[in-house]
Amino acid sequence: MPLVSVLAASIVPGIALLAYFYWKDRYDTEPVPIVLRMFLTGMLIVLPIMIVQRSLTLWLGDSPFTFAFVISAGVEEFFKWFVLYHMIYNHTEFDEPYDGIVYAVAVSLGFATLENVLYAFMQPATFGNLMMRALLPVSGHALFGVFMGYSLGKARFSVGKNIKLHLWLALLLPILWHGLYDFIMVTVSSAWIWLVVPFMFILWFWGMRKVNSANAVSPFRFLKREEEIKS
Length: 231
Hints:
The chain has 231 residues and is mainly alpha-helical. It has 9 helices and no strands. The longest helix has 30 residues, at 127-156. It is globular, with a radius of gyration of 18 Å. It is found in: Cell membrane.
């Protein structure tokens, strides 16, 4: 398989999904440089995540449950959550609930894209393999980012104890869904597709409801309507 084709098949799905969720922002789109910075940050955390995962595997072993919920989902989603909380949560551009989804998806897809590139070069990968990865793990990471970002958006615009509640949900919900996905993949052999496909449909359905819900409470929705009326 030509190098250009490998790179395209590895990178394009992540960029396309990022563009999709970016354009789903109905009222106040985020600055492209900041979104790209978060995408690149997602790429940069791949190496430290791999180091931590290797260490935990040596320490805890790699039983299906431990691998799925701790080593894979736990470590990856924690790193994403950590950089989002420290880099963007208090940023002035985080000014509506849907922004949490945009930035979390950007970090998640940055991670998934570089992971996809490494997979393509470290293992013999056909175009079909890479397309399957685009449909499953890459889009999965995007949806885990939707759930994380939705709760971050809720936390950002909540008060009192609800802030901590939603910050915890921003970490725990993606770990749960990511862990379930990985657990299916490592425990179900030949029939895995019959479980993963409906599982992904559920994730997409629920994820798009979160997208619509976050947009529906944007403080800019009234300004947008006023502009439409005036025009």
